[in-house]
Amino acid sequence: MVQAQGFETDFWKDANLRKGWDDIVPGEPRKTLPYLLTQEAIALYCKAVGETNPLYLDEKAAKAGPHGGLVAPPSIHILLMFSCTPADDWMRSPGTINAGQSWSYNIHARPGDTIRLEARALDKFIKRQRLFVVHDNVFFNQHGQVICSGRGQTIRPA
What is the pTM of this model? Predict the structure, then answer.
């Protein structure tokens, strides 16, 4: 299981391991890794994006709040997308462009949750000489509850 550490900032570090266009098989599940979400990871994420809501950072305020304790911001799925995938995952390729996405949020992730990702490419196609992939992603907690789910498109590097 992967646990929170500093965030990798060298996006080219494992580029030679990444799957390319020909390796992406629509419908095939992507290899994923469980991830233990810690309060430290939530705090690092909040700091990185400028989030200051006490429901994510202050134990006392969060206990008195609507969720009865600390929760992660809904946008934590950005951190989880990379934390739950290995270095050779095609979604991590430098040069990938986000061509749009839509997310549904069901429940908050919490510190101590073990997050699991189910993900796959749904389709891939070439349009105007660009390589597109349509993909979907569903994040679950250790109880099998859906935290959030999303569908998007990316333009892949050649």
Answer: 0.89
- Give me the phi and psi of 57, to 5 degrees please: -125, -20
pLDDT tens digits, one per residue of 30-75: 999 999 999 999 999 999 999 999 999 999 999 999 999 999 999 9
Model pLDDT for residues 108-126, shown as the tens digit of each residue:
999 999 999 999 999 999 9
Can you give the residue ranges of every domain in the chain? Answer: 28-156
The Cα 8–Cα 94 span in angstroms is 13
Q: Tell which residue, 61, 144, 79, 50, has the closest CA to residue 106.
A: 144
**Topology at the third CATH level for domain 28-156:** Thiol Ester Dehydrase; Chain A (3.10.129)
| Residue 70: other Cβ atoms inside 10 A | 22
Question: Phi, psi (5° rounding) for residue 88?
Answer: -90, 5
DSSP character for 28?
P
